[in-house]
Amino acid sequence: MLNLTHLHTLVEVLRLGSFTAAGNRLGYTASAVSQQMSALEKDTGMRLFVRGARSAQPTQAAHAMGQHALKLLRDAEGLLAAGAAASEDAVRELRIGAFPSAATFILAPVLETESWQELGARLKISIGEPSAVVPGLRAGGELDTALVYQVGETGLVLPQGVSRHWLGEDPFRVVVPASAGYRENQPMDVESLGRLPWIVHLRGSSDANVADAVLANAGLHPRIAASSDDFNATLRLVAAGHGAALVPQLALTARPEGITVVQVSELQLSRKLLLLSAEDGPANLTERLILACKALLPAV
Hints:
The chain is of the alpha/beta class. It has 11 helices and 11 strands. Helix 9 (206-217) links the parallel strand 7 (198-201) and strand 8.
């Protein structure tokens, strides 16, 4: 009999490229991964890796077995899920990945709604940026669904069998320190805005590149006072008078005092909010989550 744990480890080794990386992902040492692969070779009578002094290269047999192992692992999960669904004592669970603002201002309120609590289901949440959570939706992965965003036309590379569900738009807002002397939603011209220092999104990410392009197209080349990949930290810095920033509306749900939102007609940017679902996830719970998110978002 084949050990499903060993097959799962094989899949991760092939996906990540080394025993060490697979071990870090699964919580094993590299030595434990090597022992599992040796056991799998013994069980199958196949040579799966050519081992060297510092590396182990997968054979064609390993790649072929890994491809079929994905389907076998998915079928095994389906078997267990079917058994759990038939059990009266089973706790229904939806495994979801979400970016930080979505976890705070969408998922947390959804969990508190009476309609979700009546389902008797629970969410198992993994928090991370889209690039970190999307791989978990692959067949046999650790996620059933994911809340992600897409800025402009930047692409999201999705695993096979993953569906997109549009939830809404999350427009970006220009925020300045209250000490700048502007009223809420007061128009502000680009020249005045350009005289303020700026807190920008951390360089290198696709959304940061799009935001930079929007600023440049408006003729705005601000002096950068800080770079941040956390909008909560950005808002705190704006409130402290450190500079202006461009932040999504969702992040302003619980904004600190000392911030003013201004209207700058030349700066128009929005991000799409999407829910991604794996084909082997619990469809009923996913549909209920989509409805709950859409009901909440207009009020956000």
